[in-house]
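Quick one: structure tokens for this chain, please?
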Amino acid sequence: MSSIDFDPNGIGLDNGNFMGLPFTPENAKIEIISVPWDVTVSYADGTSSAPENILNASMQLDLFQPEIKDAWKLGVYLNPSKPEWIALNIKLRNKAIKYIDFLANGNNIEDSAEFKEILNDINSYCEQLNEDVYKAAKKIISEGKIPAVLGGEHSVPLGLLKALSETELDFGVLHIDAHMDLRNAYEGFQYSHASIFNNAIKNGYVKNIVQVGIRDFCEQEVEFAKANNVHVFHDYELKANDFEGITWHKQCEQIISKLPQTVYISFDIDGLDPQLCPNTGTPVPGGLTYDQAQYLIKLLVKSNRKIIGFDLCEVGGKDHEWDGNVGARLLYFLCNWTGRSNGLI
């Protein structure tokens, strides 16, 4: 079915596409890379199947967006997860669980050839995954489309950030998350979900990061943030401002003022209240409401800033319909307002 014949008011079409949309990689304007990966998660796994969960849940969503006329016409295509990535994730996750248990029991990696080999194996394959994401993102960018990543754990957009850094100068990152993700090779994993922005900064992919909703972090991360131009809007500060009568609009203006004109959005869904994402990898009490997150992104676009790409990570995986429902809605919202910021809809 072509977009001309598509009925946005009809039943969701089970055509294998996100929300049943009638687009292909050839005619989409936003192309999303599915990365089914949760090898390094330190608490609960399962987010590797989030792309599948979101795709399934998206069939129940309405396409109409009151603030963006014909939003569905933007052209969004969600690439299916690669079977080889799924298989490799299962294999490595089983090894990672044994390795993390080894550390949690107070053992030293230097005393075990077995676990040293497991760690090296995982680090090597994670590096390979990053390179695959980088190549996929680079291809999307070369075709004049806007790239996005759907995880999986929050380590997986690193290749996308690398690709964007080669074509975009001085872009900033709006990072919504419960965690700072600034740890140095957490648990020995060079590409840990808790280390993505440590890696992004050290590799020179990003220079300006604004973090929102942060409420679970360590002293090492605080010092790293201070030394590397990371602006942090902690959840407890945002809530205190709210209690003292500072409007969310005013707080959003303060957040946005720290960002340059070109912005990448990195959205770890655990930045939201865990009632909205109960099966995310590392849920933390507190967080933004869905409406607060939407309003912040809308105001970012209305400030005439351009979104050059985004990621959505840590959504609960299959068999968790509520997580998929919220994740699918958030993904569609990110696509629409990214398109609006680029004048595409």
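Residues 168 and 262 are 8 Å apart (CA to CA).
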